[in-house]
Amino acid sequence: MSAHGDVDLGHTLAGWTGTTVAGLGAAVAGAGLCLDLAPALWLGAALTVLAAATTWTLHLTGWGKPSGPRPADQWDWRVRDTTARRGHPDCLGCRLAGRRTPATARDAAAPEPAPDRLRTRPRRPGRPTEPLES
Question: Looking at per-residue confidence, does 134 or 34 come out higher?
């Protein structure tokens, strides 16, 4: 068990690589600002754009993760996502790449609302929760 408990924190190769390149870009841009070097500012901005493009490319090639928690055997950052080729439901990066998931996959991935909250009105002070009329 890790220090964070038994949860999927989403550590992926795409996430680590993008964060590292973006951090390097911010450091270069910060140094350029402190040293009054315009080329360093532009290099830092270019590295930041490169970080976004790198993260997106790695996500699309299967080194990212879909939204939501993954099964415990896929939590390691070296595990490749086999569903990336078809696209992830509700994923902006996959939609921008033209990967559309079928409606059935999108519907299956949507969580169901709690049944007791579906048919009740909000609680008012001094009154119990009232069921809605159908």
Answer: 34
